[in-house]
Amino acid sequence: MELLAEIVISLMIVLSGVFALVGSWGLVRLPSLMTRLHGPTKATTLGVGGILIASMIYFPMFVGHFSAHELLITLFLFIAAPITANMIAKAHLHRQGAGIDPNPADDIRENLPEPDKWATFNKR
């Protein structure tokens, strides 16, 4: 049983490391803020969540006690990361509409709706 747990923990750590590496690479290499949001919010979140799940398997199997800290951190991470990305994207769109911080890589200026037609933006 311990061998199976070691294999599962090892696979979780390696897979999580791959997700974190891909997410970090996407954060560095993608051209604009709107595309860069996907790296940390999708892949890196899965990477950190996988490491925490591996920790939740390790401690009851080999140390002998369960701690809910990893579970709470994982839940908070999976709840907070998409909300944070949504707020960053909205702030970026609002700044683009005001003519601040132009980024030619994402062509957002040509495709923006009129500011009074946005559901969350009322320019006054």
From TrEMBL:
<feature type="transmembrane region" description="Helical">
    <location>
        <begin position="71"/>
        <end position="89"/>
    </location>
</feature>
<keyword id="KW-1133">Transmembrane helix</keyword>
<keyword id="KW-0472">Membrane</keyword>
<protein>
    <submittedName>
        <fullName>Na+/H+ antiporter subunit G</fullName>
    </submittedName>
</protein>
<keyword id="KW-0812">Transmembrane</keyword>
<feature type="compositionally biased region" description="Basic and acidic residues">
    <location>
        <begin position="106"/>
        <end position="117"/>
    </location>
</feature>
<feature type="transmembrane region" description="Helical">
    <location>
        <begin position="40"/>
        <end position="59"/>
    </location>
</feature>
<feature type="region of interest" description="Disordered">
    <location>
        <begin position="101"/>
        <end position="124"/>
    </location>
</feature>
<dbReference type="InterPro" id="IPR005133">
    <property type="entry name" value="PhaG_MnhG_YufB"/>
</dbReference>
<feature type="transmembrane region" description="Helical">
    <location>
        <begin position="6"/>
        <end position="28"/>
    </location>
</feature>
<dbReference type="Pfam" id="PF03334">
    <property type="entry name" value="PhaG_MnhG_YufB"/>
</dbReference>
